[in-house]
Specification:
4-stranded antiparallel beta sheet
């Protein structure tokens, strides 16, 4: 089993395209360089200013320690952090346990919407 975190963001009006650029060019590569497994991310199919980020971890404790390390890092704090926070109106987080097969299925079937 894997611990999967699903983040849903309601972005400030008109910021979806810029948010996606920051995620694609800065935030997700930074996550990956820190060893975070980003399953999928992108602009929602229903709204240009709605966004999702799906990440997988080995366990809940792995999620907690990984995020504590990532979000306290200088690379995050001095990198894309403020530009991302400035564009988010509402953030909702949900965590669930799913099989590794389901994680791989999500990874290969949830398309990333490239533009608003």
């Amino acid at each position: 089993m894997k611990t999967v975190e699903i983040m849903l963001y309601t972005l400030k009006p008109g910021t979806g395209k810029a948010f996606h650029r920051i995620m694609t060019e800065e935030s997700v590569p930074l996550h990956q360089s820190a060893g975070v497994d980003v399953i999928s991310f992108g602009i929602s199919a229903h709204e240009d200013d709605a966004y999702y980020l799906i990440r997988a971890y080995d366990s809940l404790s792995h999620l907690e320690s990984s995020q504590a390390s990532f979000y306290s890092s200088e690379a995050w704090r001095c990198g894309p952090r403020q530009a991302i926070i400035d564009r988010i109106s509402i953030s909702v987080k949900s965590v669930l346990a799913i099989s590794e097969n389901a994680v791989e299925h999500l990874r290969t079937t949830v398309p990333i919407r490239q533009s608003a």
